[in-house]
Design goal:
The structure is a single chain. By secondary structure, the chain is mainly alpha-helical. It folds into 4 domains: 40-84 and 304-380, no CATH class; 99-296, Lysozyme; 394-441, Membrane-bound Lytic Murein Transglycosylase D, Chain A (Roll), CATH 3.10.350.10; 457-510, LysM domain (Membrane-bound Lytic Murein Transglycosylase D, Chain A, Roll), CATH 3.10.350.10. The protein has 23 helices and 9 strands. A 3-stranded antiparallel sheet has the order 7-8-9. Helix 6 (125-137) crosses helix 7, helix 7 (139-162) packs across helix 10 and helix 10 (217-235) packs across helix 11.
Length: 511
């Protein structure tokens, strides 16, 4: 397509501000797109099918439809250009520098932002430290996030608006994931909104061999909105809701108790987990970053594709990323970036898992050649192998309650007593009310290293005795012998159950 050369405007550029010149170029390019329509021919002939040996260059788009897509692309570019506060020549000259400002300037800027949001954008030394983190130490990450926001923020804002939630919550995804839809934390939290396995399942996100909806920008954003709305309904305060999103409702409630019933984030700040103390300050700092990036000479790194340049199509059969990349002559990595939900690099092609996102120009090729492409896929008829699901263990913090014992806790959480002892460096089985236990959900039960020692049961007088084996707990013994824990304790009054030795005899019945 024709394009206007910027050199035409060089004389004007000497007299006009850069943003005006740039807008003039975009306007003319947009008009060129529109005026191209009358000279377009209405269709192209295509082969009936494409075999594996056929040249991929035979794929052709409908010329008229392609011109329409191009004009729409120009239109959206123009709208964005007119709505943005473009950098001036002086601003661009600052690129590469790292301006710093006084505490008073930071405080004044946050005070102005605070008036536009329901969040408490407080200024203090902790917040300033996080501002410096984003605008000084991690400038490249910030530039990347500023660019990626063009792709993700329209989706976030639409979903937040649907749930009647503050639009500033979009910045939470920057704190959580740096706008990377496939990032995974050491604890196993995954996706833009960093859902743990259990929390994601609770809010309806499917995780199986083919898909992980925690990585789906649309579905994970919907789940995040539901979770955030739930937390706000619980605490009635957005800062506390954010803290709970990071560390869980129970820990925030405990911090409130420890503070003597205080109900604001900064009042309970000293009682929060260490990682959560930086969470809300980081959120405030990201609000600042997106409002004042220009003042800090941080130039966005453009996203590979803006959101308006991507669209979706539904497939009728399982198709691998490699097949798509080969057929459309595009980078497989781009296919993967646009379709992060598919964990095995294959689109299953069934139910809700048949959606393929592509750049609009490539999507046009696919639609225009659908019969030939499906014929080719049928000829290949190879179902890609699927990697097994690897479920990251989810860390759970369990508070011991009255009446709890290790066997009961283990059964509730699908693990063994021995695992709980290992996870918590416990040598015995004693517990105290209020004690915190670390549990790893979704952990695979370990195989026993060898054949267990046979149970030794003998009768003496009116009692039936059991010889304790290595690894036995009181709860295991009661369960295995079909007796109640209360009876076992009553028959063996005086026994130190927290320090049982292999070979020690316990009464397990009356003869």
């Amino acid at each position: 397509m024709m394009s206007v050369n910027k050199k035409i405007f060089e004389p004007l550029a000497l007299r006009l501000p850069y943003p005006i010149v740039l807008n003039m170029i975009r306007k003319v390019n947009f008009l060129v797109c529109l005026t191209a329509f009358p000279i377009v021919t209405m269709g192209t002939s295509l082969p009936d099918s494409l075999s594996t040996a056929d040249s991929l260059l035979l794929l052709k788009d409908d010329a008229y439809a392609a011109q329409l897509d191009s004009a729409i692309h120009c239109y959206y570019e123009e709208l964005i250009a007119l709505s943005q506060d473009l950098y001036s020549i002086d601003d661009l000259a600052m690129e590469g520098s790292n301006p710093t400002f006084t505490a008073e300037e930071y405080a004044t800027r946050l005070e102005l932002l605070d008036k536009t949001t329901p969040f408490d954008l407080t200024y203090n030394s902790t917040v300033e430290a996080f501002i410096h983190l984003y605008v000084s130490k991690k400038r490249s990450l910030s530039a990347h996030c500023l660019g990626q926001s063009d792709y993700y923020f329209p989706l976030f804002e639409e979903t937040l608006d649907k749930h009647n939630l503050p639009l500033e919550l979009k910045y939470l995804a920057v704190v959580e994931s740096g706008l990377n839809p496939t990032v995974k934390s050491r604890a196993g939290a995954t996706g833009l909104w960093q859902f743990m396995y259990g929390t994601g399942k609770h809010f309806g996100l499917a995780i199986n061999s083919y898909v992980d909806e925690r990585c789906d920008p649309i579905k994970s954003t919907e789940a995040a909105c539901k979770y955030l709305a739930y937390l706000y309904d619980m605490f009635g305060d957005w800062d506390l809701a954010l803290a709970a999103y990071n560390c869980g409702e129970g820990r925030v409630t405990k911090a409130i108790r420890k503070s003597g019933g205080k109900n604001t984030y900064w009042e309970i700040y000293p009682y929060l987990p260490k990682e959560t103390r930086g969470y809300v300050p980081a959120f405030i700092a990201v609000n600042y970053l997106f409002a004042y990036a220009k003042e800090h000479a941080i130039v966005p790194v453009p996203a590979e594709l803006p959101s308006y340049a991507v669209d979706s199509i539904h497939l009728n059969q399982a198709t691998s990323f490699a097949q798509i990349a080969t057929i459309l002559e595009m980078d497989e990595e781009l296919v993967a970036n646009l379709n992060p939900i598919y964990r095995a690099k294959v689109i299953p092609g069934y139910g809700d898992y048949n959606v393929l996102y592509l750049p609009k120009d490539k999507l046009g090729l696919w639609v225009n050649n659908i019969s030939a492409i499906e014929t080719r896929l049928d000829e290949e008829s190879v179902k890609p192998e699927v990697a097994p699901v690897v479920v990251e263990p989810q860390v759970i913090y369990y508070t011991v309650r009255s009446g709890d014992y290790l066997g009961k806790i283990a059964e509730r959480n699908s693990c063994s007593v021995r695992q709980i002892q290992q996870w918590n460096n416990m040598s015995g089985t004693s517990l105290r009310v209020g004690q915190k236990l670390v549990l790893h959900a979704n952990s695979v039960q370990p195989q026993k290293p060898s054949t267990p020692t046979p149970a030794v049961i003998e009768k003496s007088g009116n009692n039936i005795y059991y010889s304790v084996r290595s690894g036995d707990t009181l709860w295991d013994i009661a369960k295995d012998r079909g007796i109640s824990l209360e009876d076992l304790k009553r028959w063996n009054a005086g026994v130190n159950f927290n320090n049982m030795k292999p070979g020690q005899k316990l009464i397990i019945g009356k003869g």
